[in-house]
Amino acid sequence: MERPEAISRLAKLVGQDLRPLADKYAITVWKAGKKNKGWAGHVIERHLGLALNSSRAPNFGSWELKMVSLKDRAGILSVKETMAITMLDPVEVLQKPFEQSHLLAKLSKLIIVSRIFQTQADDRSIIYSIGQFDIGDTDVFLRVRQDYEEVRKVLKRLGPLGLSGRMGILVQPRTKGAGHGSVSRAFYARTQFVRELIGLQQPALDKWERGLDGTLSYIRGIE
Length: 223
What we know:
The chain is α+β, with helices and mostly antiparallel strands.
């Protein structure tokens, strides 16, 4: 599937609640009291006809699909958390410059779906926007390359244990997985970078309606 067709399909989901779609596509959200943290992304993948995929290659061959969560505080939306981009293989990073990296491949052609996270129960989650991003030969390219090269330098001097989540302006290297003993690492887009990727702006107040329970309901498309 080419990216324009995917964007067209996904655009129809803006304003819709993902939970009914999870039921439609038989995506488990909760099981034995434990939440499937990736359920929303799995719903989007199934909606596009994609089997669940953990490969580091771009999901649809020429472009990559990402899901991000937004949080609402008094009607103001902000990025909830960092966005995982790709796993960090120290050997590979040392061997490959940024121009040949998996990190660049993942950021070269994105579709980013943002949803509103309302409660930990995730019993309701509205699709806020569908966006696209191409890193191209831009200032962002240069800034991300700088972060990548910093990781390479640290790996050469100190090895993987020298990497820290405090590194990086736009992209940080940090552990991935449960527990403090995790050794798997990944590249993550910092929240300010995610905001830049999706072009997050505060929507006009007349586009949203707050219910008695405090949740936001989508009224019409964001202009």
